[in-house]
Amino acid sequence: MGVRGEVFTTKFISGERTYFFNVKENVYGDLFLNIVESKGTEGGTTRFIRQSIIVYKEDLEGFVKEFQNTLDFIKQHKG
Predict the structure, then answer these.
(1) CB distance 22 to 12 below 8 Å
(2) Which of 5, 29, 41, 60 is the most buried (most CB within 10 A)?
(3) Which residues contact 71 (CB under 8 A, 6 or more apart)?
(4) At a CB cut-off of 8 Å and minimum separation 6, what does 37 contact?
């Protein structure tokens, strides 16, 4: 691709939290997924707490499979 950095992004807003799903390219041209949760701090200031997880391209298939298994479990057991 030769783009380097962020090549795609989308977000989901849920109350105080915003989830970003970013596809990025590293210096070697490899793509990876960066999932970020951003949440405002108490007190309504402009400060945010950010947490991030990176999933590399070679791990995406297994990650998606186990993520789907987790979603299926939650759906079956929600009360």
Answers:
(1) no
(2) 60
(3) none
(4) 17, 18, 19, 50, 51, 52
The tokens for 79 are 């009360």
Per the CB < 8 A criterion, the answer to whether 35 and 50 are in contact is no
All structural domains of the chain = 5-77 (3.10.450.700)
Could you tell me how many residues make up the chain? Answer: 79
- Quick check: pTM over 0.90? no
Contacting residues for 31 by C-beta, under 8 A, at least 6 apart: 1, 7, 23, 24, 25, 57
* Mean pLDDT per 10-residue section of the chain, whose length is 79 residues: 83 96 94 96 79 97 98 92
The tokens describing 30, both together, are 């490899």
Give me the amino acid identity at 5. G
Please, what's the largest Cα pairwise distance for the chain? 48
